[in-house]
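Shift notes (night). Ran Riboflavin synthase while the centrifuge was going.
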Amino acid sequence: MFTGLVEEVGCLTKIEKRGDGIRFQIEASKILEDIKIGDSINVSGCCLTVVEYFKQSFSCDLVAETLQRTYFHHLSIGDFVNLERAIKYSDRLGGHLVQGHIDDIGRIISYSTLEGGAYWVTIKISPPLLRYVVHKGSITIDGVSLTIAEIGASHFSFAMIPHTGQCTILGRKGKGDLVNVEVDLMAKYIEKLMTPYHNQG
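Came back to this:
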């Protein structure tokens, strides 16, 4: 489980084909401080498992299912990714509860800079997922916890402060770029619990 507060930006240094999947090697620093084999790392929104680590990098395997549900098959050596270690239950929950399970690949359809250096970003997602998107609710974009400001028929928008743009890969993105999207976990649980009662009605 994660919070959606990115700890650092890593750089993809190696992509190795392995059967139907691939292995990423990612250069990092902060998250290597206490890293262990088997640790869960949120890599641009997707929970991946550490299978190797070195002095300045770590490796994780991506199976075919992961490649289908993320935009990671579009990445190349030299691309950047957001990184966050799994939370400890004694930590402050500064963002919101994030599983690292991608629900959709979104596309940025509008990206503009506001007065003061903030950003206004609009992302198109699959319309069925919009039932989990609520005004002022939380959503995870490339592993970043954000607050929804507007909702349309097939898209939603959020404002992003300059700090978030500077400290995550979202500041490097623009119109047309793909993003990994995870909707709020609590919304999905509530829907699951309410479905039997809705069907009875």
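Residues 149 and 158 are 5 Å apart (CA to CA). The helical segments are 64-69, 162-167, 185-200.
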